[in-house]
């Protein structure tokens, strides 16, 4: 009877989370639709080559009718957008001459995931471990150096850090390429291309990873510092447990609760890319696509990018809720 009751509560909780996610996505889609139409500029004129192309008013109006821009914003365009989005149709790009938004996103996603995904993995492993150790050995040399360096990295703009790395390792030393994905003339798919791709990836990955590293170190250190001061840690020491046993049996798991939330939420931003970093390194990912679409007033692409970001954040929150249930059984009650 008790097991059935707990199962019913768990099912109700999961259903509530899913319903909340659906409502959130609908709100994000509606907000995206309205937000990007506030941006100055007429996309119909851009479709015809801009204001300097000598287009007539009739030509611009014909484009507006073709793309449905002549219809009332609310409710016609909004309802059509929501209906198409639910069916998986994100529309067609203005700037890229009618290409599907979904195809553009799928084309740019691998580069972004390679950049931000690798940087996240490096930052999570190094940052959490360093933060946990610094919090466990508070006041030591590692703690002081790690905290100072983390504060400096956390407060440094990513684009400035990226340009600094380019100046040092690309311009001055000439060790690494400073922009692009691969060098001209390299055969795509070959071993030489793979090595060249990895070399181009080092500087942008280092930029993103260093920016995230400080955040993970500070959060993990603060969480571990709070856990060390708890009464049950004093009791565990009084029972004769070694430092290693106390760390692995009690401190680490409890300190990971706030860290898990930060990790899952940051992973939700992987698909969005690092816009400033991709711009500095001319990296052809979703972040660069966002800048291009913003400059061209390409509403469908902007809506697709932010809808993808919203969906990834909602999924990340779902993973965070499930992770909390694993790390802390009290969340299931």
Automatic annotation (TrEMBL):
<keyword id="KW-0614">Plasmid</keyword>
<dbReference type="Pfam" id="PF00528">
    <property type="entry name" value="BPD_transp_1"/>
</dbReference>
<dbReference type="InterPro" id="IPR035906">
    <property type="entry name" value="MetI-like_sf"/>
</dbReference>
<dbReference type="Pfam" id="PF19300">
    <property type="entry name" value="BPD_transp_1_N"/>
</dbReference>
<protein>
    <submittedName>
        <fullName>Dipeptide/oligopeptide ABC transporter permease protein</fullName>
    </submittedName>
</protein>
<keyword id="KW-1003">Cell membrane</keyword>
<feature type="transmembrane region" description="Helical">
    <location>
        <begin position="197"/>
        <end position="219"/>
    </location>
</feature>
<feature type="transmembrane region" description="Helical">
    <location>
        <begin position="255"/>
        <end position="281"/>
    </location>
</feature>
<dbReference type="GO" id="GO:0055085">
    <property type="term" value="P:transmembrane transport"/>
</dbReference>
<feature type="transmembrane region" description="Helical">
    <location>
        <begin position="301"/>
        <end position="327"/>
    </location>
</feature>
<feature type="domain" description="ABC transmembrane type-1">
    <location>
        <begin position="109"/>
        <end position="320"/>
    </location>
</feature>
<feature type="transmembrane region" description="Helical">
    <location>
        <begin position="21"/>
        <end position="39"/>
    </location>
</feature>
<dbReference type="InterPro" id="IPR045621">
    <property type="entry name" value="BPD_transp_1_N"/>
</dbReference>
<keyword id="KW-1133">Transmembrane helix</keyword>
<dbReference type="InterPro" id="IPR000515">
    <property type="entry name" value="MetI-like"/>
</dbReference>
<comment type="similarity">
    <text>Belongs to the binding-protein-dependent transport system permease family.</text>
</comment>
<keyword id="KW-0812">Transmembrane</keyword>
<dbReference type="GO" id="GO:0005886">
    <property type="term" value="C:plasma membrane"/>
</dbReference>
<feature type="transmembrane region" description="Helical">
    <location>
        <begin position="157"/>
        <end position="177"/>
    </location>
</feature>
<keyword id="KW-0813">Transport</keyword>
<feature type="transmembrane region" description="Helical">
    <location>
        <begin position="113"/>
        <end position="136"/>
    </location>
</feature>
<keyword id="KW-0472">Membrane</keyword>
